[in-house]
C-alpha cells in the first residue's frame, strides 16, 4: 500500500486535489470509505480484496461536485460507472483524478469466497485512469455472459405465475429506505421519480403495489446503464436479490443491442439513442 | 371553480346508432365540474358550433369537452370556435366516441358506457388544462433547390418568378442534368438541347437565382421557415469569378480521359467543361487525372490562362445559407451495362445503354451525329433494342417499371431509322406502355410507319459471333426461340436513385423507399411534399418520370414553396416541451432522443458567472410536440404542454376509479 499512500500524499500536498476518496479498515477484516483532506489521513489508506464499495458513487453528490478537483480510488469495475457518468454529462473528466487499482477479485458481500461479479470481469487492469497502481493482473478469460447467477436461469425457467409469486415474496420485504438508490453511482437524479408528487406516479407506501412500482422503475431506469457493481444489493437491509432484476435487463441489452455499459465513454446507451437510419422494424 | 360544458355529437347515425347520445349527455351532468351538457346531430355543422359558442358565453364555461370524432378531424374546428367565443382554445378537448367507440363496438350498452368513460376522462383532463399560446416563428423568405436538372431548373425559375430568391445547388460542374445529354425527345421529336438551353440561360440570368455548381449539401439544421444549410463547394481549382470561360486551358491540357457526359464514348481533358453549353461555363480540374495535382508536373493551364484563374491549392469551401423552404430534385442515374452478366457484363463494346445511344446519334455527340458502332466505327445495319433491362425483375434486379423506356425506345428506333433508312431494327419487349398524351400514336408511328419490329419476349443472352452480336431470346407470341444477328445492341437499363441519395436524405431528415427513391408525404394527396415540413420533392428523385411530368412537378413544388413563404410568420401550436430547470440534471437523455434536435444544454451560472450545472433547454421553434423526450427523462423534468403529467394522470385516474 506504500504506493497508494505516497501518491495520495503527493496529490494532497501539491494541492492538486481538494479531496481524495479511498478505503480504510473498518476495524475488523473489512473496509469502509475514507475521505482524505490532509496527509495524516492519507496514512490510513488501504486497498485489498475487502474493498467492495464503489466509491465513484460519491462523485454524484453536490458537495463533492462543488469541489475543484477530487481524486478517487477505483477498481476497474468502479471505473465503468465513472465512464457512464462521463457519457451522461455528470462529471467533468478534468475535475476527477482517478487512481485505478489493479484487482484480481474482491470477496462476496458476506465476506466468503470470490465475488460473483469478478468471474466476468474484463477490467482487472483499469481501462481508464490517471494513474494505475498495483501489480498488473493477468487478464483471465472472463465468461462472456454477464449473467452468472444460477438463480437467474432458474428464474427464467419459471412460469409467469411462479415468477410473480417469487417477486411478490421477495419485494414484500422492501422497507422503502432507498439505500439501493443512494448507493448506486448512476442514480444521480436531483429529484428521483419516487419523490415526484405532482402527480405521485409511484405509491410511496411500503405495500405490494408501491414496492413493485419502485423496484421495477428503479431497475428500468438502470436498464442498459447498470454496470453490475452490485452495490444496490449489497446495501439492501432487506436482502432483496436486486441483481436479478438488473442482470436480466443487462442480458436484454447485450442480446438486443450488443451493448455493455461502461467501457467506451464515446458510445451512447442504446435506450437513449436516436438514429434516423434506424430500421424501426419494431414499429408495425 | 371549473365550469365545464360537454357537447355530445350524433354524427348522424355514425355515433347515435351505437351510443345512446342523450344518456351520455345526461350522465355527464353528474360529473363534478360539469355545468352544462347537450347532444346534437352534427356538432361540427355551423349550428353545432354556434351551440358550443353560445354555451361558452352563457354558462361562462372554463373548459369544453366535445364528444365526437377523432381530434385529427375536428379539433381545429372546435378550438377555433372556442377562441371565437373568448375561451383559450387549449381549454377544449375532444373525447373520441366515434373511431374509438361507435365504429368499433356494436352493442348499445357497451358503446354508451364507454362513451361516458371517455367523456369523464376528458372532463378530468380539461379541468387541469392550462391555457396555452400559439407560437409564431419568423420565416426566411428564401428557398433552396437541390439538383439542377430540368426539374430543379423549373422549380428555381418558378420560385424566383414569384419574387422569392433561390439558391440552386448542383453536384456537377454544370446544371442541365440528364436532359442535356439527350438527342431528340418524345413525343414531338424536338431537340433536347434546343429546348433546355434557353431554360438554363434563363435561370442563370435571373437576378433572384444564385447557382452554386460543383457543390453538395454538407449539413442541414433548423426547421420549416428557418433552415440553415451548409453547402460544400468542392475544390474546382478554377476561380469562377476570374475565369472568362475562354477555353484556352482545356485546349492546351495534354490529358485525355473518358468523358462522363459522353457516357464514356468520347474524351475530355483534365480541365474541362462537360459540354459546350455548360452553365456556368467555367471549367473545373479533375484532380484525379490532372498531372499537376497528381505528379506535380505539367502546370500548362496555369501558364496559359490569361486571367490567372487557375489555383492548384484550391480547397473545399463551406458556405452557409439560410432558407425557409427546400426542393429536392436530385433526379436519377441509369444502370450500366456492366451490371448485367447475362448480356456480356460490359465486355462487348457494341452492347450499349440507351443513354450511350442518345450520345451516338446526337448531332453534338462524340461523332457529331454520325452513327458508328463503338468497336470498329462501322455503320450498324441491324440494331436490337432490349427493354426492361433491370426493371420489372424482382428476382434479380428492380421490381419497379422504369416507366419511360417504352417511350424512348420507340423514339430511338425512329432516330435510328432517320439516320439509316435501310436499317433493320428490332425491339424485345414485355409490354408497351404508352399512356401519355400522344404517346400511343407515337409508338404506333414507330411500329407502323418507321419499320421498328417489335418482338414480345425476354432476352436470355447476348454474345459475340465474329464481327456480329447475337441476341438470343424467346418470342412469347409464337412460342419459339429466336436468334437475331446484329451490329449493335441497345439496352434500356433501369433508372435508379442516384449515388449518395440516402446520405442526402438522412442529412435532410426525409424518407426514402427500399430502392432509394425519396418518399412523398402522401402518394395521392401530397405528392410533392415530404413528411418534414418545408421540404418538397420533384422529378425523378421520386421515381422514374419523363420530362413533362418532371417539369410539372418542379412547378408544383415551386407553388408549395411560394405558398409557404408568402407569409411573414408561421404559427405553430403551443404544444411544446418545457424543462423544469430546478430538477433537470442535464443527463442528455432527452437531447439524444429528440428527433428534431430541438433540445440543447444550457449553462446555469452563479452571480460570478461561474458554471454551476447544465440543464436541458427546448427551442420552442424547433419542437414539434412529438413527446418523444418526456418518457426518456427518469426524473420527469421535461413535460409536454397540453399533455402534462397532472393532466394525463387525471385522465387515467378517472378511468381507474370506476
Ligand atoms: C435514354 C433516355 C432517354 C430519355 N428520353 C426522354 C425523352 O425523349 N423525353 C422525355 O420526356 N424524357 C426522356 N428521358 C427522361 C428524362 O431524362 C428525365 O425525365 C429528366 O431528365 C428528369 O429530370 P430531373 O431533373 O428530375 O433529373 P436529372 O436530369 O437526373 O437531374 C438531376 C440533377 O440533380 C443533380 N444531383 C443529383 N444528386 C445531387 C445531390 N446530392 N446534390 C446536388 N445535386 C444533385 C444531378 O447532377 C442532376 O444535375 C429519357 C431518359 C433516358 C435515360
Ligand atoms: S435498499 Fe432494499 S429495502 Fe431499501 S428501498 Fe431498495 S430494495 Fe427496498
Ligand atoms: S443498479 Fe446496482 S449494480 Fe447497477 S450500477 Fe446501480 S448499484 Fe451498481
Ligand atoms: S430510480 Fe430513476 S429517478 Fe430515481 S434516482 Fe434512480 S435513475 Fe433517477
Ligand atoms: S416534444 Fe419532441 S420535438 Fe419537442 S423537444 Fe420533445 S422530443 Fe423534441
Ligand atoms: S432527460 Fe430529464 S434530467 Fe435528463 S437532461 Fe432531459 S430534462 Fe434533464
List the uncertain runs of chain A: none
Task: Say what the CATH topology of the largest domain in chain B is.
Answer: FAD/NAD(P)-binding domain
Strands in their spatial order, largest beta sheet of chain A: 2-1-3-4-5
Principal-axes shape call of chain A: globular
**How many separate domains make up the residues of chain B?**
5
What this model shows, in words?
- The complex is a heterodimer of chains A (284) and B (658).
- Chain A is 32% helix and 10% strand.
- Chain A folds into two domains: 132 residues, no CATH class; 123 residues, no CATH class.
- In chain A, strand 1 and strand 2 form a beta hairpin.
- With 284 residues, chain A is an alpha/beta fold.
- Chain B is 29% helix and 25% strand.
- The two termini of chain B are 24 Å apart.
- In chain B, helix 7 packs parallel to helix 8.
- The longest helix of chain B has 21 residues.
- The radius of gyration of chain B is 32 Å and the shape is globular.
- Chain B contains 19 helices and 34 strands.
- Chain B has five domains: 129 residues, Rossmann fold (3-Layer(aba) Sandwich); 182 residues, FAD/NAD(P)-binding domain (3-Layer(bba) Sandwich), CATH 3.50.50.60; 80 residues, no CATH class; 164 residues, FAD/NAD(P)-binding domain, CATH 3.50.50; 64 residues, Alpha-Beta Plaits (2-Layer Sandwich).
- Chain B has a five-stranded parallel sheet, with helices on one face. In chain B, strands 20-27-21-22-23 form a five-stranded parallel sheet.
- The chains are: A alpha/beta (284), B alpha/beta (658).
- The interface between A and B is medium-sized, with 21 and 27 residues.
- Bound molecules: flavin-adenine dinucleotide and iron/sulfur cluster (5 copies).
- The site of one iron/sulfur cluster has 15 residues of chain B, from helix 17 and strand 33.
